[in-house]
Amino acid sequence: MKAHLTRRYHFSASHRLDSPEMSPEENRATYGKCNNPHGHGHNYTVEITVSGPVDPSTGMVCNLVDLDGFVEREVLSRYDLQNLNTLQEFAQLVPTTENLSVEIFEILQRGFQKAHLERVRLEETMMNSFEYTGENEPRK
Amino acid sequence: MVYLTRKAEFSASHYYDNPDFTPEENLRIFGKCNNPNGHGHNYTLEVTVKGEVDPRSGFVVDLKQLKEVMHREVLDAMDHRFLNKEVPEFLTQIPTTENLAVAVWQRLETKLQKAKLHRVRVYETPDLFVDFYGEA
Question: What confidence score (pLDDT) does residue A139 get?
Answer without folding.
Answer: 66
